[in-house]
């Protein structure tokens, strides 16, 4: 779908994605499988194009959070194995099997439901057992006093008819924190995960085909967590301190344009509430980029966006569809000029720090009315707009 507007858009650099994948692939080695996490529309980068790129680059597995996200990939021709990290309603088990989608199994109740449904249609559902080693979210609780009951629950699921336990995995809570306590916590999670695996494998008399736990922090800092497969998201997209250390490249650049320029005398209140009042004659640019595009309103009067003449301050409240920037003394910024919200020239980490959040939230927040341009070799190879134009 083409967008005819030159308003606000995101540029997705698929070469940067390929580059990041190859750096990470070299880091983890050829013998370790590589799962790319593409949930939430690939963290806002577009899961279909991201998955196609990873598939071509040689990745082994993909992960999403729901069956809708998995189906979106299958319907668009992605053939790679796909793991659903979250729950799927039991009514959808037949679909999972039909489309060869792997399902996480996180507790006894779900295991039973999935088994029953698979047996009903005389088919096998491929599953990965999820172990809760300290994230305290989904998974069989196995820490401390829960070890024995955890192991028994896992063995029970593995032995249920209709289920094929291809893999087992866990998720780290603080692998991306550098303080001593977090390092200890991560090591404890890893040791517990390994203990669970050896006990389960001993009692079932065979090994899991794929054991995995390494998210972004673990891939960056704990090679001992790689096991059979790594499972990064953020690193692939090139954000955060570890991406920087590894020389990875940001995949998304979010751009907008100057739609109007106004000159105000000193003492002019700007935007809703008048929280900013000009202190001098001010040249102000109006940008077609507001909170409905994914700009956090909490960044009103705080954020800086990158222009051809350096950083310009957002002035006054960010509106639904627009915001204002101060471009006094920025002679190269004219109507139609490109403004970089974040990306190659304006690191997303600065904006996410300012908003008190993480890069993940900013890329996920880019809304459906912002078209995406996929770039290969400095050329736009595809454009995508998520609005309902197909009538
Ligand atoms: C989101 C997610 C990941 C990827 O996390 P990153 O921090 O982006 O690497 C890995 N595993 C699970 C279970 C997740 O939910």
By secondary-structure content and strand pairing, the structural class works out as alpha/beta
Mean pLDDT across every amino acid position: 97
Which regions have little confidence, pLDDT < 50, spanning 5+ residues? Answer: none
| Cα-based radius of gyration, to the nearest Å | 24 Å
Given the C-alpha coordinates, what overall shape results?
elongated
**Total count of strands:** 21
The ligands found in this model are:
pyridoxal-5'-phosphate
How far apart are the termini?
Answer: 13 Å
The major beta sheet can be summarized as: 8 strands, parallel, barrel
Please bin the fraction of helical residues.
25-40%
Helix tally? Answer: 13
- Please state how the strands of the largest beta sheet are arranged side by side: 2-3-4-5-6-8-9-10
* Share of β-strand residues: 15-25%
Features:
single chain, 391 residues, alpha/beta, eight-stranded parallel β-barrel, five-stranded mixed beta sheet, 13 helices, 32% helix, binds pyridoxal-5'-phosphate
Structural description of this entry:
With 391 residues, the chain is α/β, with parallel strands linked by helices. It has 13 helices and 21 strands. The strands form 5 sheets. Strands 2-3-4-5-6-8-9-10 form an 8-stranded parallel barrel, surrounded by 5 helices. The protein has a 5-stranded mixed β-sheet with strand order 19-11-1-20-21. The chain has a 3-stranded antiparallel β-sheet with strand order 12-15-18, with no helix packed on it. A hairpin with a 2-residue loop joins β20 and β21 (379-384). The longest helix has 25 residues, at 180-204. The radius of gyration is 24 Å and the shape is elongated. The mean pLDDT is 97. The structure holds pyridoxal-5'-phosphate.
